[in-house]
Amino acid sequence: MHLAVDDKTGEILSVEITTERKTDASQLLKMIKKLKPFNIKQVYADGAYDQTKCREAICDAGAVPLIPPRKNARLKKGKNGELVDSYRNDDILYIWELGAAAWKQDLGYHRRNLSETAMMRLKHFFSERLSSISFKMQKQEVLMRIQILNELNAVKLEVTANQ
Fold it and tell me: Is residue 15 a contact partner of residue 3, using CB atoms and an 8 Å limit?
């Protein structure tokens, strides 16, 4: 299961439900398309998304990719050896100069954990196991769980706002 979560409300905006054979990065393009109506500004993702196609898809959607480069990351250079202007190169240079902890702190990378929190809430509230046997019905079961969780989250936000 691959989730996109609103970093302000905790609402699950998009989900891709796949077999375990699908990588995180392979699902990003589908999720980005579903998120267009939400006018996303930033995408926080883990190092599994540190791929050119992922970063390009995020930029094409008008958002900034906040993805930590891999530890052995190299700067991307153009045909003449000049540095390519890219978020990734900026991130690599920043990390080389100030360290990964500073990069994470300064860019608010900790917000990525909201998707992990949403996943934990799904598992904790409903259990990790699905009741349905067929994959088609399992997808429906997950979608219903997400809808219920989003409704509960909306009620919590409304109650908090009224206090």
Answer: yes
